Every structure is written in C-alpha cells, then in structure tokens.
Amino acid sequence: MFADRVKELKLLNDEYSSSNFSFTVLYGRRRVGKTTLLKEFIKDKPSIYFLATLENFNVVLNRFKDIVAEFLQDSLLKSLGLTDIKQLFKYLSNKKIGKKLIIIIDEFQYLSKIDSSIPSQFQYIVDELLKDKNIHLILCGSIISMMYEQTLSYGSPLYGRRTSDIKLEAIEFDYLKEFFNNKSKEELIELYSVLYGVPKYLEMFIYSGDIFNSIETNILNPNGYLYNEPQFILQNEVNEPITYFSILEAIANGEHKIGNIAGKLNKNVQNITSFISKLIELDIIYKDVPITESNPLKSKKGLYFIKDNFFRFWFSYVLPYKSQLEIGNTNYVLSILKENFNSFISPIYEKLALRYMMNNYSLIKCGRWWDKDTEIDVVGIAQDYLIVAECKYSNKKVGIDVLKELQEKSKKIDSNLPIKHFFIFSKSGFTDELKKLNGDEIILVELV
Q1: What is the CATH number of domain 361-446?
Q2: Would you tell me which CATH number, out of the four given (1.10.287.70, 3.20.20.70, 3.40.50.300, 3.60.21.10), belongs to the domain 6-167?
Q3: Could you report the per-residue pLDDT of 46-105, keeping only the tens digit for each?
Q4: Which candidate in 48, 127, 171, 447 could, as Cys together with 4 as Cys, close a disulfide (CB 3.0–4.6 Å)?
C-alpha cells in the first residue's frame, strides 16, 4: 500500500524534471517502504530496476546486464562478457536516450560487500560516463551505516556527487487511517505504539481483529514474521550486537540516564558512549533534554529513549521473555502485556499530544520538561507565552485534581513567559466537574 511520502515523491519528481543528470541516494531501515516509493515514482516513466544480492559478483553483474539488455531490447549486450560494472554503464551511456531514463540499484550496499571497489567505480561512472546524460541514477539501500559510509560520508569516493538524498522514515501517525479505515482512533494509537509507522508491519495487521491476537501471531510466536526482526536489523548494522541489545533493553525497562544504563551493563559511562552514539545515528534511540534548556547539546540533563516504537515493544515484551516464548508459554507474556498496555502506550500518547499542539498553535518549539523532582508531559513555547499539557492514557475519566496538579507543577518551569493554555489530553474523557472549566484557558482533548 502506498501512503504518505508526498514530500519524497515531489523531490524525486523534481529531480526527474531537471534537464541535467540527476543522482539520488535513498536509504532507510528495512521494511520502511523504499521500494514501494520507487515503484510509485517510476510507474509512468522509463526505468531500469535492479536488486543487488549477496552472490558471486559475476553472477550479479550478468543478472544486471541481462536486465539492461532486456530493457534496451539489445541481443548484442546480452551476449557480451563483462568483467566490471563500469563496462555496463559505458555501453549504456553510448546509447541514444530520448525521455529521461531512471536507473535504480536497490540494496546498493551489497555490491560493495562483494566488491570493495564499487564506490570508486561509481565515482568514475558518475563523473565520466553519466554527468551529461539524460539519466536519473538512484542508489538505494537498507543498511543505513553502510549506505552512509559508501555514498554520503566525506571519505566516500561518491561524496558531494549526489544531487539529492532521502532518508526515508516511518510514516506519520496521521496516515495510519489509510491502512485501517475501519479502526477507531484508540485502535490506531495502539497499532502505532506497537508497530510504529513501518508500512510492512502495518500491512500484516490490516485484516486482523483484536490487536493482542495479532501480536501473538506475528510478534510473540517464535515462527512469526516479526519475532526476530530487531535482531536481524541490528546484526546488519553493528559489530557487537550484545552490547547494543543490553543498552536497548535497559532503556526499554525504564533506565534513561546514561549513568544508570552503564550501571545495568556493569560498565563505565565512557565504555558505552560510542554505542549510544551509534544507536542515535541509526535513529533507534534519541537524546531528550528539558524543552527550556538554552543549549540542548551541552545540557547535562539528557535522558535517552527508544525512538522506534516497534524496537521499544520488542525490547519490552519479546527479548526479556524469550525463554517463556520459546517453550510456548505465550499466555504468560500476553497477560503481562495486557496488564501494562496502557502504561506502555502512555509515552507515545504524549508524543502525539505534542504533535497536536505543534500543528494547532504557532510554537517555536515543544517538548517535555523536568527538573529534579517534577515532570510535565508537554510544554510548548511560543513567542510570548507558554502552553502546558498533561496526558492521561488510562481507562478512567480525568478529574479536576489532574488539572490542579498540572497548574502547581507549571509554577516550577524556568521561564519568564506566562502560561496561556492548560491542556489535558485523555483517552477516556473527563469528569463533569472538569468539563465545566473547558474553555480558552483550560482546553480538554479526548484522545488526539
């Protein structure tokens, strides 16, 4: 299913419309929808699509050659014995091309795995063979660290040669309804909290009823498609998966200070900083600081959270319970999940509330705020005022006590700006007493 991707599709079409040679690097984690985006982009354009695989290089090269020959309807090319990829592109570059031709190499990083000279060969291909041709070259890959190293980093032979690059992220929450047009807002929040916005995962749950049945079938089942998914992703990206796994499990279990994370691993902070940096680079975790910090990069109040909701779910309910799941004791894990499901969703609900405020108010920035003993779910900073919010994802209605607590906590925010609005977000609605206060200053939002 094709959803969202409006900006990315526009960028690709703008590149294609250029009268010059175009070179796009497209990368992002597995299952995020890169190939689906490319299929949508090329559906009405002449294109050559090649998927690289980890095989003998001659086998891969000949397969690519045959695809090009078939596109060109060129029996001579099919009969040629080529020894490197430069020869194929030289042959192609000598062909007369009318309408701009798109050439896509998917899983490009595998070519470099089987031939380390590939980035240098593509430097020659771009600089000498294609630079004046009516061609749009797209190199696509799903191992983020390798794609960056081979195509975007300063040390890459291809550095500075791209005309555009796209790091494809998970789709936004607002687009989930295109996958699930029969689901309620609450059900969409549950699905997003477990699956994030990864299209492949979402498609697997389209025809499911109860979310817990789908989780049991696809995630908690040792034969399920998603049972080992984060393990596969990390093993492709990093050299010491055990340390990364331990860091992510510690964060998933509530340790957000780097000192506490290191303590869980029985290591010094200095020993895990490179691992933390790598996980941030891979977009799996992020560092959060109080929204009022004037210099976030130098703040000593940083806390670490898992950005990818599916990784967070897996490190909360799959990895710690693998011993039970492997012997078929799924009901035990499901009972723990059901008991804690609202608490698990709460941080994601806060992020959705944050987006709601950013989309509906002219804010400079918006995020969480905390000090030593106080925490506020969302604080929005405008030019001359603040907005504060409390988010409650529970099965009971929110009462006036929550508002009063928020008003008291807000007095501690280190800002000279006045508070203009107090927001309360609730999954299950509000008491009649609190509803009477709903107005301009106090704003009640059910779900998001």
Answers
A1: 3.40.1350.10
A2: 3.40.50.300
A3: 999 999 999 999 999 999 999 999 999 999 999 988 899 999 999 999 988 889 999 999
A4: 171
Distance CA 355, CA 330 (A): 35
Residue 242, sorted as left (phi over 0), alpha (psi -120 to 50) or beta, turns out to be alpha
* Largest CA-CA distance found in the chain, in angstroms, rounded: 82
* Coil, helix or strand at residue 22: strand
Domain-wise residue ranges, the chain? 6-167, 174-345, 361-446
For the record, the structure tokens of 152 come out as 């975007």
Residue 426: how many other CB atoms lie within 10 Å: 22
Query: Interior CA angle at 4 toward 177 and 377, to 5°?
Result: 65
Distance CA(447)–CA(429), nearest Å, equals 8
At residue 108, φ and ψ (nearest 5 deg) are -55, -35
Q: Smallest Cα–Cα separation from 349: which of 255, 250, 423, 273?
A: 423
Of 106, 99, 151, whose CA–CA distance to 125 is shortest? 151
Yes or no: say if 195 and 176 are a contact pair by the CB < 8 Å rule: no
Query: Which among 89, 172, 169, 199 has a CA at the least distance from the CA of 133?
Result: 89
Buried b or exposed e, range 182-218, using 16+ CB within 10 angstroms? ebeeeebbbbbbbbbbbbbbbebbeeeeebeebbbbb
| 111: nearest Cα among 60, 165, 153 | 60
pLDDT tens figures, 320-344: 999 999 999 999 999 999 999 999 9
Alpha-carbon Rg for the chain, nearest whole angstrom, is: 25
Angle between helices 330-360 and 185-195 (to 10 degrees): 110
Indicate the CATH number for domain 174-345: 1.10.10
Q: Do 406 and 424 meet the contact criterion of CB atoms below 8 Å apart?
A: yes
**Could you check whether 6-167 and 174-345 share the same CATH topology?**
no
> Taking the model in full, what pTM does it have?
0.90
SS3 135: strand
